[in-house]
Specification:
CATH architecture of the largest domain: Alpha-Beta Barrel
Shape: globular
Strand content: 15-25%
Radius of gyration: 21 Å
Low-confidence stretches: 1-23
Number of domains: 2
Number of helices: 14
CATH topology of the largest domain: TIM Barrel
Strand order of the largest sheet: 9-8-7-6-5-4-12-11-10
Mean pLDDT: 92
Structural class: alpha/beta
Distance between the termini: 56 Å
Largest sheet: 9 strands, parallel
Length: about 450
C-alpha cells in the first residue's frame, strides 16, 4: 500500500511517463546492474570525495587548485563526489538562494569536468546541520529545539542527543521543509547542469530516522517519499541525470527493510550505501588482513540492497591511513568492489596529517594509498564484465567482457604509468590507442573478449 501511494504521488506530479531506456534525451540510465551512457557503454566509477574540508571553511567551497586536479587525475580517479550543503545554498532563509555560492559551485564543476572527471553532487549533512555540524541551515529548526546542545565524543554519538533528534523529527514531519530542500536542489541542479559530466545527484548524506529508528518501513516510507520529491525537482531543473539514493543510518544498522525504489525511479537510480568497517574507521584500529572476512562484511552490507538489480556505488569508504594494515585493507576492498562491479568514492580528498585525508599536510599523497592508485582500471566498458580482477600488488588488471560493436573500452592509468593493454581474440577490439593517462579501444565485432593491462 505504501509503495502504491508513492507511485500515485509521483505520477500525479507528472513524472510517471516514460523510462530512461525509451527517452532519447536521457544522458544516463541504469540497465543490467550498470550505469549506462546514451551510447550503451557501462561506467565504472572510481572516485573520491571532495571534500571534508568544505564543511568547515567559509563559503563551503574547497579551494580547488590546478595542482589538485593533477593529483586527482594522477591517482587514477575518474569521478568526484562533490559535497554541497543546504545551508550554503539557502543560508538566509526559506527560498533565499545564494547566487554567489551557486556560481562558485558551478565553477568547480566546470574545472572538474574539464579535467575529465565525472561529478556526483552530494547534499551533505552530519548531525542534521547547524549548529551541530554542517548541513541544514539553522532557520530550518527552531531555536527552542536546538537550545542546550552540548557535543559529546565520539561525534556520531550526538545523533541521539535531544536536539539532533528533535530537528530530524521535525524535518520528517514537515512537508514544507521538504519543499525548501527540493527548491535548494533545483537551484543546485540548474546551476551545474550545463556540464554533461555531471552524472547525477546524491540526494541526502546518511539520513537519520531519529524517533522512527524502530520502524522497519522508514526507508520505503518517509525517506523514499522525500527522495521522490527531490528527484522530481531535480529532473525538472536538470533532466536526464541519475539519482543516487542512500539508505538511512537505521538500514546500515540492520534495523530497516532494504530501500526499494519504485518503477518511476528505477531506470535512473543508483543505490549508494557507505562502508566503514570499525577496524579502519576508528582510531587505533587494526585490519586483520582477512579478505574473506571483509567480503562477508561487505556482502552483509550490500546483499539486501543489491537484490533489486540496481547499480551499487559505495559513496563513502576508507578510513584512517595511520591504522595498522590500512594499505592492505584498501587493496582488499578495491578488489572486492571490482568483483561485485560496485563503484566507489574514497573518503576523502584533503591535506592533513591525521584523519581520513588523502594527502599529508605538505600536499603529498600518503604512502598507504600508493598501491591502490598505481593500478590501471576501467572507466568505460562496452558491457558489464564477467571477470574484473585488478591485482593492486602487481599493478595489473584482467578483464573478461562482452564486446558490442561500436562501443568503447577506456582504461585509466594512474600517474601516467608505463604499460599497455592486450586483448584476445585478435580483431574483436581495435588496436589500443593511448594518450597520457587514458587508453582506449573500440569493439569491432560482437563477442567475448579478454583484456590484460599491466607494466
Amino acid at each position: 500500500m505504501r509503495r502504491a501511494l508513492l507511485l500515485v504521488l509521483w505520477t500525479a506530479a507528472g513524472c510517471g511517463a516514460g523510462g530512461g531506456a525509451e527517452e532519447p534525451g536521457r544522458l544516463y540510465r541504469v540497465e543490467g546492474g550498470a550505469i549506462r551512457l546514451r551510447t550503451g557503454e557501462a561506467l565504472y566509477l572510481r572516485g573520491i570525495n571532495l571534500s571534508n574540508t568544505s564543511k568547515y571553511i567559509e563559503g563551503h567551497l574547497y579551494p580547488l587548485e590546478d595542482a589538485d586536479l593533477e593529483v586527482l587525475a594522477g591517482g587514477g580517479f575518474d569521478s568526484v563526489r562533490l559535497l554541497t550543503f543546504w545551508e550554503a545554498v539557502m543560508p538566509a532563509g526559506p527560498g533565499l538562494v545564494d547566487p554567489a555560492y551557486l556560481a562558485g559551485l558551478a565553477a568547480q564543476v566546470r574545472r572538474l569536468a574539464a579535467a575529465g572527471l565525472w561529478v556526483v553532487v552530494d547534499m551533505h549533512q552530519d548531525l542534521y546541520g547547524s549548529p551541530f555540524s554542517p548541513g541544514a541551515p539553522p532557520w530550518s529548526c527552531p531555536e527552542e529545539v536546538r537550545a542546550g546542545y552540548e557535543p559529546a565524543e565520539p561525534w556520531w554519538a550526538n545523533y541521539t542527543s535531544r536536539q539532533v533528534m528533535g530537528c530530524f523529527d521535525r524535518f520528517w514531519a514537515t512537508p514544507a521543509l521538504w519543499d525548501e530542500l527540493a527548491a535548494a536542489w533545483a537551484a543546485v541542479a540548474g546551476a551545474v547542469c550545463a556540464e554533461e559530466r555531471v552524472l547525477g545527484f546524491d540526494l541526502l548524506n546518511e539520513p537519520w530516522p531519529a524517533s522512527a529508528l524502530g520502524d522497519p518501513g522508514f526507508d520505503n516510507g518517509p525517506l523514499l517519499a522525500l527522495y521522490l520529491r527531490l528527484a522530481q525537482a531535480i529532473e525538472a531543473a536538470c533532466p536526464g541525470r541519475l539519482v543516487f539514493l542512500e539508505p538511512s543510518l537505521g538500514e546500515s544498522l540492520g534495523l530497516m527493510e532494504p530501500l526499494a525504489p519504485p518503477p518511476p525511479l528505477a531506470d535512473h537510480t543508483v543505490l549508494a550505501p557507505h562502508f566503514y568497517p570499525r577496524e579502519v574507521h576508528d582510531p587505533g584500529g587494526v585490519y586483520a588482513g582477512d579478505r574473506a572476512a571483509l567480503a562477508e562484511a561487505l556482502d552483509l552490507r550490500l546483499g539486501p540492497l543489491g537484490a533489486g538489480g540496481l547499480p551499487l556505488w559505495i559513496g563513502e569508504w576508507g578510513g584512517m591511513p595511520v591504522n595498522e594494515n590500512f594499505a592492505t585493507y584498501l587493496e582488499d576492498a578495491g578488489a572486492l568492489y571490482a568483483d561485485r562491479f560496485a563503484g566507489s568514492a574514497l573518503y576523502e580528498y584533503s591535506a592533513a596529517d591525521g584523519g581520513f585525508a588523502f594527502l599529508d599536510a605538505a600536499g603529498r599523497r600518503k604512502p598507504a594509498y600508493d598501491a591502490l592508485v598505481r593500478t590501471p582500471m576501467p572507466a568505460l566498458l562496452p558491457e558489464r564484465p564477467t571477470r574484473f580482477a585488478p591485482d593492486f600488488a602487481r599493478g595489473t588488471l584482467a578483464l573478461e567482457l562482452g564486446c558490442v560493436q561500436g562501443r568503447r573500452l577506456e582504461i585509466r592509468w594512474p600517474d601516467g604509468a608505463p604499460g599497455a593493454c592486450q586483448a584476445l581474440p585478435a580483431g574483436r577490439l581495435s588496436a589500443f590507442a593511448r594518450e597520457g593517462r587514458r587508453e582506449e579501444a573500440r569493439c569491432e565485432q560482437d563477442g567475448t573478449v579478454s583484456v590484460v593491462c599491466g607494466p
